[in-house]
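Pasting two entries for a bug report.
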Amino acid sequence: MSHDELAQIQARYARRAAVVDRYSLLRPEVWQMWAERHQALRRGLAQRPGGPQGWRVLEVGCGGGGNLQDLLRLGCQPEHLTGLELLPERLAAAQACLPAGVRLLGGDASTAPIASASQDLVLQFTVFSSILDTGPQQRLAAAMWQWLKPGGAVVWYDFVVNNPRNPDVRGVPLARVRALFPEGVLRAERLTLAPPLARAVCRVHPALYTVFNALPLLRTHRLVWIEKRQSAA
């Protein structure tokens, strides 16, 4: 990506990070979102061949390392995990909380020195919705696909719809995911009660998250498993 594109993405994340409390796991809507997503992720991982001790997993936009910590708890080995992070402060947070064996790299993920066909899983959680230009999206998707082993999968979790009150993100419809990974075999499910609604109902009572989330139309994110066929190049 160009320097200007990277600077714009950094600015979007900086504005989001300024509202620190909004993303705290101590908030009832946040931990319920996390629990729902983590349960769906575990279901998908349970269907993967082999086992977590042997999987090589890379996360694009690893932030402070929370998802990589979850993978360690599921049995992945530190030396088999890689995190890529654009923002230096987030990279430093990940370095502070993750074991030394986890490989952490800063800078532009699309140019990261990752060997082709070296990863069993490549994760991206709410990264592409912050990349508003199609060119950088395509370059990053191509890199992710190149890193993936045949038989592996991209694990995608991101916004489906736009938030009219947040111009820093743009929803990524399933058709766009297919266009970014045209050789992939996709399996998708809708998750996550719309965050503004989740915050509102949980102020009344945390149990209302489950009640409203039972309506699929109120879910704003999609978890997609994008399989790379064994015969794929």
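Entry 2 (this is the one that rendered wrong in the viewer):
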Amino acid sequence: MFVRIAVCDDDSVFLEMLVKQVSQLFQNVDSSLELEYQIDSFQDGANLLGNWDHEVYDILFLDIEMPRASGIQVADKVRMKNPYVKILFITNREDLVFHSIQYRPFRFIRKNHLEDELPEAVNGLIESLHKENKYLKVSFNGTEKNIKIIDIHYIESCKHDIYIYTFHDTFRIKSNLTKLENQLEAYGFIRTHSGYLVNSRYVFSVEKTQVVLNDGREIPLSRYRTEKVKHKLQLYGRGTEE
């Protein structure tokens, strides 16, 4: 497996240190995984975006607060070009966590906790790369089908049927939403309502009565679940689960 990594921070000293630490962590990955990597560094978000036309990255370590093109602006453009890129925001501004959710960050790493949080983040990246090749086996129209878990946006329970919504297809199956919740919770799925299970990677925002996905679809949010949903989004952003 070959992984392309971009690191972007306007502080040259911090950038050099971050690239070095990321490189060391990837070098220490279990050799049995046969992982190769390439790291490119940028001090400017505009330069990173200019290079994106020539090099599509799998992983992006991105400083939120930068002049010219902020990390938020860069993430917005990057997501349009590559919906699967794993973005890790690097900052000391914890108040920006929810503002950045719409760009589906893989992690939110604090600069003053880099030594503690970066190793966990890299381990999480490696684990995620393998998880993305996982499939949900379902019975659809009398035949067995494997649905790639990363492609599932949300799941809806309607009467006695379960509807699974992906990028291009909708699958109707016979199952139980609680059973699916137990199966998919480890992959970042959150129960927002008694009848809905949502993939956290596609959450754009959390409103009073609904969760808005990045494609504009609105999923019902039970009032008593609101705090739990927000809490889980924070946990997934940190790479932890309860």
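Dev reply: Rendering is fixed now. As a check, the viewer should reflect this: The chain has a mean pLDDT of 84.
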